[in-house]
Structures
1.
Amino acid sequence: MTLTDEQRTEIRETANEVRRDVIRMVHAAGCGHPGGPLGMADFMSTLFLAHLKLTRSNLHAADRDRFILGNGHTCAGYYALLAQKGLIPRDELLRFRKLGSPLQGHPHRNAELGIDFSTGSLGNSLSVASGMALAAKLNGWSTRVYSTSSDGESQEGQIWEAATSAAHYGLANLTVIVDFNNIQIDGVMREVMNVRDLREKYAAFGWHAVDVDGHDIDAVDAALCAAAAETERPSAIIAETVIGKGVSFMENQSGWHGVAPNDEQAELALAELA
Amino acid sequence: MSGTSVSSPSINIAPRATGDVRRVATREAYGEALLQLGDEREDIVVLDADLSGSTKTRAFGAKHPERFFNMGVAEANMMGTAAGLAAMGKTVFASSFAMFAAGKAWEQLRQSVCVPNLSVKICATHAGLTVGEDGKSHQMLEDIALMRVLPNMKVFVPADAVEARQVIRVAAETPGPVYVRLSRAATPVVLADEYQFEIGRGTLLRDGGDVALAACGVEVAEVLEAAEILAREGIEARVLGLASIDPIDGELIRQAAEECGAILTAEEHQVNGGLGEAVAHVLVESRPVPMHMVGMRGEFGQSGKAGELIAHYGLDGASIAAAAKDLIARKG
């Protein structure tokens, strides 16, 4: 199923609004991670608008789809999307990372806001997503479980333990989207610790694995459709992205992995995203 | 010296096993209890990390293969998977040796199980010195410390097979994370079958007023033996079973301190961070009394037979009795 023009427009507008929210949120917090969520905004918006069945009306349905943000530090964009879906009040977004806010610096499970799991420690989430997929399969539910990951997170050994067991148990209802931007905190991923070809790696572990341009929403949509059509293997979508996408001075800069823009930079960024 | 009698109605007086001493490993009781729970409850799912024959989850797997998942030699992933299953409503039992369940997968237990407060029951076997010949790489002596420091985690160390069966049942019925420390070695059954374990309640296993001996796990039988040795010398020791380490029975401990004037703790664990410190914590925040902690003092174990190791490191009844006499001499 391909995207309609209407969907395509909605996804693009949502992605742009998510980017604007990310800048506002991280700026208001005075700290956080703007680069990752800017890079992920296109594939995340495609997932949340065209695939992930999560709405206010099915929020408490036991068999609804699940989403886990494996690279939890990119949560500003995730929260912005949950706000777009009406699950997080918009005025809460500017309390991101502040004392008492449910919008923690890294996601904390919250049944009312649709935050399905607590993340933040890299490497842990694919195992949790596998457990959720296993439970859904055991119950005979049509639930799909989506997790994000990243090239940097792929340096964690537990990812490959989870990749092994998810394939072993034939978790076709599990899809991981790997944000591959070649940037991690200490610099360029290929220089810090090269994880090499993740599509080949996941394929070797028994997964259905594809490379896509993470900013091409039609390609992302097609990859998610192909993942949903799998009947025996879990799916890995290696989404090549540009960290900081949409804000010229943040693009491809490891320095913007975990630094908040000042007033002037936030204004410049929002002008570019207008 | 003479013993005083415990009068408080709130004290949980444990029925003691009588007749010939039976020796059963707590892991055996776990396997049996799990099998029974599996028959009763559809929501119970069991994970193991390639040790199902040793941890005794295999019987559940044979009976309920659709709800048993061998995760291979990958404990971190096992705990994460357990968390995911629990997040979807399952009650999950995850087993491996204590070294790997509590040690290798500690961070996963913290982040994915305790932070979201999920019903994952970590039933860790082969804890402590009594693993025996496998030696220090497998003798987990730090797991009580690692687990009791975690918010939301309940920590239970059953004294024998009777208590283990009860603890497993209570763990299944209690929402949230639970760590159960189990042993490889067959150890004496000290409790009668009608015994009922309660969360946060210790048990009075022997009355006495000269000194209190508090223990968990395999050391309960050792302190009971120590109490017999002391009794032959006219010293009446009160014996407390503290299987529920977190939450702990503060009332039982405070009363023992007040009435006996000194408490010795015994555990097959480092004295740092273990049962002894949990007891000391209760007392330093109320009315401290002289204490002595029997356990490992900053060293790892070694290969040997379970009984030999317990004696070598001073965790046997005779050593505990001697330590108790030194402690009594320190009473004010």
2.
Amino acid sequence: MNLKRREFIRLGGITVAGSMVIPSLITSCKGIPVSDTAAGYMDHFEVTPEQLQKVLSTALEKGADYADLYFEHTVSNATSLQDKKVNSAYSDITFGVGIRVLKGDQTGFAYAENTSMDSMLRAARTAASIAESNSSWTAPAFLELMPRTLYNVGSSWEDVVIKDKIPFITSLNDKIFAGDKRVTKVNISLSDSTSYILFCNSEGIVSWDYRPLTYMMARTVMEENGRIENAMVSESFRKGFEFLSDDLVERLAGDAISKTSRLFLADKPKAGEMEVVMAAGSSGILLHEAMGHSFEADFNRKNTSIFSDKMGKKIAEDFVTVVDDGTLPGDRGALNIDDEGVATEKTVLVGNGVLTSYIHDRISAKFYNVKPTGNGRRQDFRNVPIPRMRSTYMENGPHKHDEIIASVRKGIYVEDFSNGQVNIGPGDFTFFVKFGYVIENGKLTKPIKDINIIGNGPQALADITMVADNMKIDYGTWTCGKDGQGVPVSMGLPTVKIKKLTVGGVNA
Amino acid sequence: MTTSEKYEIADLVIKHALKCGADEVAVAISDSASSQIEIREQKIDKLQESISNGLSLTLYVQKKYSSHSTNHLKKADLLKFVEGAVAATKYLSEDEFRYLPEADRYYKGGGEDLQTMDNSIAGLDPKQKIELARQAENEIFGSDDRIISITSSYFDSVSSDVFVTSNGFKGESDGSFAGLSASVSVKGATGRPQDYWGEYAIYFNDLIKSGIGKKALERTLKKLDPKKIASGKYPMIVDNLVMGNLLGPFISALYGSSMYQKNSFLTGKADTKVASEKLNITDDPLRPKGFGSRHFDAEGINAEQRAIIENGVLKNYFIGTYYGRKLKLPPTTIGPSNLVFKTGDKDQAGLLQSVKKGVFVTGFNGGNCNGATGDFSYGIEGFLVENGNLIHPVSEMNISGNMNTFWNTLAEVGNDPYRFGSFLTPTMLFDNMDFSGL
């Protein structure tokens, strides 16, 4: 019930703390193998082109400009390990159709949880009431927009039975326990989901998508002389069952051991403003919070973003180029089409230091008279699409990682994060550091952990003084929250130096 | 769906799951209807209505456990869903502690009406809702040149649930709320501060319907042109509206699941002093018109009032059935209902008055708490306070500390419990907080 426009990101599923009960076992209860055509998806949802046109025309009967229908059928599973045993599982089915009507930048929205004509027409009439006149609309013939295939699913999660997933989970548990004598607890969750999406709109576009999403996550607890430390590791992709491999298990086990054990040496740093070096990889959280949200065009259309009057202006050094990319194959943030039936693209937000594009959905693209960027996303059919990030990263720059560290006399180096947030209007953003180091005279010295860093977006962007050539995308399970809707994203960064941020910590 | 229709589906699902080989089953079925209207620039920006259903299913099959949810309630599909769920559960490992709660712990019915449901909300005229939202914006529309954007909003929701278990629990609950809010952005020299005000109530007639836009604007204008202050230790007053953010990690540490996962800095602290004696918290599920009121918890367990913290001493944890068995601790309830605080004598102004130089925290920005160690660090915004006066807004600062020592620095509790949620936090004053700024 909090209306503050505070956008956040967090690592992990919805239930990170405490129990890690999550899903894994149900297959599509529709049981119909969907053929990869619009007709196949219409069969899946038990609708015909004529019915879709009837629903669209009802949605427009009060004189709105545009309507779209978003059908979703998502099957999710999670399988969890606790006390060295795979002893709980969770599954979920989400099924329905969201009906949206636009009149200028006004939105009417309703949804139905079944696809009977009665239910769909009722929802269409509710959404239609955003407009107040009477009109008739002639349905154009549907034009099929064939999606690309950014997610090459080798074997579909729907064809995998739970017993084939279990060995990977127990193997990860065994490897973590074998890796360090101090390990006292391991919780693991393997999640997979499969979404069937059918989209059509009053412009006559019909499109569809088959979206896999999976992650494997482990929380490791170590104890030594009464001190308890814990760390979370995960990887997430839009992949099928081939996601699970011995390599994945090795990688996660290695990360779990190293990320947990190093915490025993770490402490809080001294509080105050200082130079901050962001390590390559998940430090992309900087872009997500300091600028990404503030570039979302809904905020700018309403003039509430601190970047609202910065389009076309120089906002960073020449070597700073930031993109939001929906086209990285298999990436957690990738989408063939966004949730408004627009093909995704690689959007340059900041090109050589100049603000070149906002992040658009249909409403904002129309308002700014630009092409939509394929960023209209929604948590599910129950929510309206809004401008959202996909995979946000910075392109390589001219400096070297070692050169950047060596240039800092007194500061910190940060490399592992759990969550972040931004306050759009003032531009203040934060991210929570799970691990890093103090830098003294060009060298990494004392390890640090569990501190919040806060800065101001436009200032921090202008304060990026060095960018290395080692860009890395982070494959963690990042979920971005906005207006109560969570969507999967990814992020990346080369090593970057920021002149000044405020670091939480202790005062002498 | 009517209540008897829900019970019918629940019975059908339970029977079918038992037939497929489950030993025990619990089913919850809920439906809700909500509406939301947003007004911007004197036009409807968004109009949304939702009606949804959901079923969740917990299965115990040969000492193996799983849980499931679906909103696809078509009978044939539902039965297939149950079959698949039971079959898949058999592949899991056994867990000797997974079985339904002992039936004598269940709520047996006959409790008083807790007044959590206003039946009039479902029948409200949409025009009246739109008018209320318009009025919230009109209070301030065009009233100040610095206003960039106002979004006002009316929303309401009604929901009803039934919960049935195969060992004899059968219960229903319902709830409603209505809310009216305004969010304002203004242009300052260094940024575009934004704030909001919202009123919420379970009963439409209890909802305060005017002054919302004005209050939102007033709160926002106060935040213009913030400055950081020097890093250091200062007294901290935390506004009752956001005090719940700092309470959250402390409450999480009281869960049996957190202790079992070694993610609680309060493990093993029963009957010891964990906070200043000014801290007194009672879990009170039976308050009339409480946002967290209930006769039974998510497991069907009979709701009882319990002291959680008494004069700073930890009296009770939140222990659900499963983790109670694993931890060999007596179960209480799986989570808090209404957390009620013993209030002090002073209002917020009185607390501010008692501070010579400190920070009045009115908002948090990100940050986190390590549940295992209690170490926390949060971004904050608020005001520099000197002798009770707000000198200037502050932002872009952090606080850091450890929950184990932090609660001992609680110096005073206000007399102003939060009105809009189940954690009824008053404004609180803490000594000696570590702030990082300039």
